[in-house]
Amino acid sequence: MFSTPYPFVFLAFTLILSLPLIFILMPHFLPPKHVQISLSDELDDLTLFRRAILASSSSSSSSFPSFLHRQSSISKPKIAFLFLIDSDIHFSPLWELFFHNHHNLFNVYIHGDPSRKIPLTGIFSGREIVSRPTERGSPTLISAERRLLATALIDDPLNMYFALISPSCIPLHSFPYIYRILFPAPIPRLHKMISFIEIIANETIFPERYNARGKDVMVPEVPYHKFRGGSQFFVLARNHALMVIQDHRLWRKFRLPCINWDSCYPEEHYFSTLLSMEDPAGCSHFTLTRVNWTGSFEGHPHTYKQHDISPELIYHLRQSNSTHEYLFARKFSPDCLSRLMNISETDLSLLFKDESQTLRYMAPKSCV
Ligand SMILES: *[C@@H]1O[C@H](CO)[C@@H](O)[C@H](O)[C@H]1NC(C)=O
Ligand SMILES: *[C@@H]1O[C@H](CO)[C@@H](O)[C@H](O)[C@H]1NC(C)=O
Ligand SMILES: *[C@@H]1O[C@H](CO)[C@@H](O)[C@H](O)[C@H]1NC(C)=O
Ligand SMILES: *[C@@H]1O[C@H](CO)[C@@H](O)[C@H](O)[C@H]1NC(C)=O
């Protein structure tokens, strides 16, 4: 017969058994702990930025000779692809295919999550820069992007464009096509190269975003009528990349911790605001990275799944209302890889053959 002569033993057992559970569940009950930028991280960044500024002032000027010699293969300008990741690069086989045979025309830089060992192979191996923890909707993402820009500026004076990429981004065109869009012949002088960055003023949510660090904290550096926003995903020209890492004034404001975390997202405002203040005429005001905000959820845009992937979708996502077609798109779930590879290897040679032969050229529409 089973009786419970020692109820307290049971109680003790239950308690002991539930202890790990408490530890597992605790983070969900406590308010989330936000990643802070320490003073020493900030100083390390400043040192990196100074090195980049110094390196750039000694190696380049507006009459950088390589621009004039596009035909000479040693001095062709390059695109720096800045991968800001906190997970595996799901589409690395696709990117390998994209970059295949264009090795002297690009560089890859990766800012990862230092607390996670993310396997990096092929063109990605050994390309991780000095990285620090980041958190969505916090100034840590701006820091990470500035570190990527600075490292790429130092690493190769031929890096002339800097394209920010996330693990859920894919290219919509072949490398040669994208290269020709960014470096049309004749290649413009350094100070004439424009940056492709979205710059939008006074959207309905902007007053809340502006005050997310507290009321009136942004003035006098950033009065509301100069506050801008846009997609986090940009392609910056070298002179603007340099401008971004030289900035202290706006960074001092945008780095302030958020009070209202639900509507902070400083990474969607810092770059647009800074470049719109410093050189509005030098920016496209639109982004080259397509994103579908229809039916967005908790600030995340629509994520394309495997069954969505078709050549028609790729054609459709390229179309834009601005001067250029979209060159990249997001977000795609990891399971899209096999279909994307299939499309790029077989069907229409859609993604990665030189499209001058395989695709009808879509005439640019006028800028709106
Ligand atoms: C922002 O938009 C609102 C209404 O849409 C308007 O009342 C306000 O004057 C605008 N502010 C600025 C600085 O343009
Ligand atoms: C955008 O996402 C919605 C679902 O949220 C979908 O119905 C629509 O087809 C998508 N648009 C494009 C252009 O893919
Ligand atoms: C282009 O503009 C039209 C009309 O405003 C809009 O319906 C369409 O969604 C836009 N296309 C893109 C790709 O933004
Ligand atoms: C790849 O594409 C071909 C032809 O379109 C199709 O028959 C095949 O099922 C596809 N494979 C995958 C894995 O999607």
Cα(first) to Cα(last) distance is 84 Å
How would you characterize the largest beta sheet? 4 strands, mixed
Number of domains: 1
Strand neighbour order, sheet with most strands: 2-1-3-8
The ligands found in this model are:
2-acetamido-2-deoxy-beta-D-glucopyranose
Structural class of the secondary elements? Answer: alpha/beta
What string, H for helix and E for strand, traces the elements in order?
HHEHEHEEHEEHEEHHHEEHEHH
Number of E strands:
11
Strand content: 5-15%
Kindly state the percentage of residues in helix.
25-40%
Contiguous helical run count? 12
List low-pLDDT spans: 1-5, 22-30, 61-73, 356-368
Radius of gyration: 23 Å
Overall pLDDT, averaged?
A: 85
> Globular, elongated, flat, extended or rod-shaped: what is the shape?
globular
Could you explain how this protein is built, in words?
There is one protein chain. The chain has twelve helices and eleven strands. It has 368 residues and is α/β, with parallel strands linked by helices. The protein has one domain. The strands form four sheets. A four-stranded mixed beta sheet has the order 2-1-3-8. Strands 4-11-10 form a three-stranded mixed beta sheet. Helix 3 links the parallel strand 1 and strand 2 (106-111). The relative contact order is 0.13. Residues 202, 224-225 line the site of one 2-acetamido-2-deoxy-beta-D-glucopyranose.
Offer a quick outline of the entry:
The protein has 368 residues and is an alpha/beta fold.
Write the layout of secondary structure elements.
Layout: H1 7-29, H2 39-59, E1 78-84, H3 92-99, E2 106-111, H4 139-155, E3 159-165, E4 170-171, H5 175-182, E5 195-198, E6 200-201, H6 206-210, E7 228-229, E8 235-237, H7 238-246, H8 249-254, H9 270-278, E9 283-285, E10 289-291, H10 311-318, E11 328-330, H11 337-345, H12 355-358
Parallel strand pairs: 1-2, 1-3, 5-9, 10-11
Antiparallel strand pairs: 3-8, 4-11, 6-7
Helix pairs in contact: 2-4, 4-7
